[in-house]
Amino acid sequence: MEFLQQNWYWAALAVASGAFLLIETLRQRGDSSSLSPVQATLMINREDAVIIDVREQNEFLSGHIPNARHIPFAALEKRSAEIEKLKQQPIIVCCASGARSNAAAATLRKLGCDKVFNLQGGIASWQQAGQPVSRKRK
């Protein structure tokens, strides 16, 4: 007890960080629009899902999911005619870490796409899971 009284700030920090981890875990568990690399692979194989990579050109060329379509985040709305053709299929959006693709998924929903999913952790988690990466130009 004396330790806690003398180091209350460390105990408070531990409680706060634990609370943030718990909140984030619960938030992700309730988000059915995010997919792990394994879930994404299953959706690609079973439901013929389309992958849209929203990274910039140089990022895309450094390595991307095989058969991914490259539509940079800034060009999503400009290329809505291309996206219109994909509305009936599940769409998995990916970027470097999952942040841009989350925003891109929201944009795709606004454009009328119903089955849109975000790849959790982006291409980094894809590679970490041992999934294949292509460097071919499309």
TrEMBL record:
It comes from Denitromonas halophila. The chain crosses the membrane at residues 6-23. It comes from the Bacteria. The keyword Membrane applies. It holds the Pfam family Rhodanese. CDD domains: RHOD (cd00158). InterPro entries: GlpE_sulfurtransferase, Rhodanese-like_dom, Rhodanese-like_dom_sf. This is Rhodanese-like domain-containing protein. The keyword Transmembrane applies. Keywords: Membrane, Transmembrane, Transmembrane helix. SMART domains: RHOD. Residues 45-135 form the Rhodanese domain.
